[in-house]
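hey so u asked for the seq, here:
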Amino acid sequence: MFNSVVAANRAAFAAFGVQQDGADTEDVVEPVDRIEPDEDLPEWHVSLSEDHPDYLGVGDRAEFTKTISEDDVRQFAAASGDTNPLHLDDEFAENTRFRGRIAHGTLVGSLISAALARLPGLTIYLSQDLEFHNPVRIGDRLTAECEIVEDLGDDQYRLTTRVVDEGEVAIDGEAVVLIDDLPN
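ran it, structure tokens below
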């Protein structure tokens, strides 16, 4: 347990760019360079269906695909403060019902936000409900699928949201978003 706390603290320091005196460099997670607004990285896959490009409507979909990496899990733990050893300590996690480490549920759910960010316009979350169905392991390639199922008026939409791992549902849910026009 102590080792997992030490490792989590090292990851937190590294995520914020703080080098610890005497730290073993192979144990320290290097901070990731920030990406630019609206940038997609080569390892991500994004698809958007727009049956009518001038406006969004029922049936329009957005998908975002990404592999969950070791760095993603460590950096999420550092940024969120969730240093549960289930996510960070192999030895500890082997003795749980999951028989190994799993990614943070909220990290996995954030892929839904990534998909919604690709909708045309400025997407603003109003609500999100999530049900966690299956654990996600480091190295899993996931796809967040979002589909508009109802136009609520006033530029608000209700969507179904899912995160799938090779056809298996990891997270199922529903969101309500407001979509404003992009500022000039």
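Residues 1-31 have pLDDT under 50 and may be disordered. Helices lie at 2-15, 70-80, 85-88, 90-94, 105-116.
lmk if thats what u needed
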